[in-house]
Design a protein that fits this description.
alpha+beta; eight-stranded antiparallel beta sheet; four-stranded antiparallel beta sheet; 35% helix; 20% strand; hydrolase; GH15-like; hydrolase activity; Glycoside hydrolase family 15 protein; 6hp_glycosidase-like_sf
Length: 599
């Protein structure tokens, strides 16, 4: 049965999810959002195709870990005849003066003890499981092809053993290189050893340059590497997750395609990357968002900017259902594309301005914010002013209803407030005063209409609704964390949305009924809110509780069953990694305190 006990390998061009027994169960051909030639994750309870694995005869136990501070996954399997070790990775390192990140998976097998009997199985499918692969064989490679795509395996293992899935003794190291239909002229054993060494050095060097907190270093490093693996370096986009259609809970149709970049995520993700000092990744992502702003502004179509975008041009975002894969544990439907692309979500204006604001203050960035960028952001700000108090689908993307959501209005306020600060930064003091005055009026109306008779902040204006997004308001500056309204909100959230130490987004019924599982990012928001009001011990307890729910290699999905602690939702979830990073940095002791004053 499928589970989210998965590791991730990748190189910011491609990625693959690998289960505890070393089976590749999700891999997009050619890029992060490509046709999943390995799709067993959505293949029901006993998929017969859509994977790559190693079957060890008489398997007794398997162990899995990451090589420390890398994206290299090591799986050790004990069998009746001996023990095999598998290294999985995607090459990434500097070569010829640029980053080498081919669309290539490398699998290296070695006997550790005895002579384990193994079977190599490679069963890709194409078109989301529509087409089983046809096979042609070369001198050292096998080509698996569908109607329009080809996957090539280059290996020093017996090709006939692979094709016929014949068991044999692993008595020497073997290499499998899976990727584009391109010839590999090098000795594959030497190549895999070289790529493994170079990739290990790259990731260790990348981690060495991170700014990390004193406490929870291993957890933060793993979250940072995973966040990096969810970035598509060619365009700078960051995916919400690497998968589609893993449901939010059991027996629900709440499953979506998250292989896109959401404007809403940008502010939080850029904040995390900035705190980590992952400057290049942050810069590329900011550039991606700013290009969205500039494109919409120059065409005069800011009001039509979608809340989500494909990670590269040419991808269809229209949501459609497919019936060729049964779904995670058989829970369908499987979706390609996301209907939220056509929704009105007014918080995107704030997300764009808050993200672009980085360019006006961050002196590390080679391209600084200038008057021209400010003028384009002004177009966004005017649209935010117009849309602030109008109904939308909200940040939770309700599909069948619209209201005036407090978070959306607050982000429209943030757009205008930050433009006031940016205008001052670029020397337009009169315009700065105008923006700040507009923002002040809007803030007053939001707080007046959004504060309930009991004194807490509602998720929508003019009626009472418990919503975890109200916890973010001090983070964006709408009010201070010592404001009585925020304290009342914190207490309300604890009473109405907390379940067994994990926070729900909301509890009232939506388009699909009442939600069942907690949303992990909201739990991190609650932890941060507790810390901001001085309730550190409570925050620490909840934070360690979340860390204990990470999977066996330290990764998180989107959702969690508050009764069982089981992970649900698309995986790995960028928002969850971001939340972990920001909470750890808020709660951690300083390095000075940790090193010299530890008790």
């Amino acid at each position: 049965m499928s589970s989210l006990d998965l590791g991730v390998v990748g190189n910011c061009s491609i990625a693959s999810l690998i289960d505890r027994n070393g089976r590749h169960v999700w891999h997009g051909l050619g890029r992060l959002d490509g046709d999943p030639v390995f799709n067993a994750l959505l293949g029901g309870n006993d998929p017969q195709a859509g994977f790559m694995d190693v079957v060890v005869d008489g398997m007794k136990v398997s162990r899995q870990r990451y090589v420390p501070n890398t994206a290299i996954l090591e799986t050790t399997i004990e069998g009746a005849g001996g023990t095999a070790r598998i290294w999985d990775f995607a090459p990434r390192f500097r070569r010829f003066g640029r980053m080498f990140r081919p669309p290539m998976l490398v699998r290296r097998l070695e006997p550790v003890a005895g002579r384990p009997r193994i079977t190599l199985r490679l069963r890709p499918t194409f078109g989301y499981g529509t087409h089983k692969s046809q096979v042609t064989v070369g001198s050292n490679h096998i080509r698996y092809y569908g109607d329009a795509s080809v996957l090539r395996l280059t290996t020093d293992a017996s090709l006939n053993y692979v094709i016929h899935e014949t068991e044999f003794s692993l008595d020497r190291p073997l290499t499998l290189i899976v990727g584009a239909d391109e010839s590999i002229i090098d000795n594959v054993d030497q190549l895999s050893r070289s790529f493994l060494s170079e990739t290990e050095l790259y990731w260790q060097g990348w981690v060495r340059d991170l700014n990390i907190p004193f406490d929870w270093q291993v957890a933060v490093i793993r979250a940072a590497i995973t966040l990096k693996l969810c970035s598509y370096e060619d365009t700078g986009a960051v995916l919400a997750a690497l998968t589609t259609s893993v449901p939010e809970a059991a027996a629900t149709v709440r499953n979506w395609d998250y292989r896109f970049t959401w404007l809403r995520d940008a502010f939080f993700t850029v904040t995390a990357l900035n705190r980590l000092s992952a400057t290049r990744t942050m810069e590329s992502y900011v550039r991606f968002i700013v290009d969205v702003v500039e494109a919409g502004s120059s065409r005069g179509e800011v009001h039509n900017i979608a809340p989500l975008f494909p990670i590269a041009p040419g991808t269809d975002t229209v949501e459609r259902l497919i019936d060729t894969l049964p779904g995670y544990r058989g829970y369908g439907p499987v979706r390609i594309g996301n209907a939220a692309v056509g929704q009105r979500q007014n918080d995107v204006y704030g997300s764009m301005v808050l993200t672009a604001a980085q360019m006006f203050w961050d002196e590390r960035l080679p391209r600084q914010g200038d008057v021209e960028l400010y003028r384009q952001l002004c177009v966004v700000g005017h649209e935010a002013h117009r849309a602030a108090l109008t109904p939308d689908a909200g940040l939770w993307e309700y599909r069948e209803r619209e209201e005036v959501h407090t978070f959306s209005a607050a982000m429209c306020w943030a757009a205008q407030h930050r433009l006031g600060l940016i205008a001052r930064r670029v020397g337009f003091d009169a315009e700065s005063r105008e923006w700040l005055a507009k923002a002040g009026v809007l803030r007053q109306e939001i707080l007046q209409r959004g504060t309930t008779s009991e004194g807490w902040l509602s998720g929508v204006l003019d009626r009472d609704m418990a919503d975890a997004s109200s916890l973010v308001f001090p983070e964006i500056g709408l009010l201070r964390s010592d404001d009585p309204r925020f304290h009342a909100t914190l207490d309300m959230v604890s009473k109405r949305l907390m379940k067994n130490g994990f926070l729900m987004r909301y509890v009232e019924a939506d388009d699909f009924g009442a939600p069942a599982n907690a949303f992990l990012l909201c739990t991190f928001w609650y932890i941060d809110a507790l810390a901001s009001v001085g309730r550190r011990e409570e925050a620490l307890e909840l934070f360690n509780n979340v860390l204990a729910r990470r999977n066996h290699v330290g990764l998180l999905s989107e959702d969690l069953d508050p009764r069982t602690g089981e992970l649900w939702g698309n995986f790995p979830q960028t928002y969850s990694q971001v939340g972990l990073i920001l909470s750890a940095m808020r709660l951690s002791r300083s390095w000075e305190e940790g090193l010299w004053h530890a008790s």
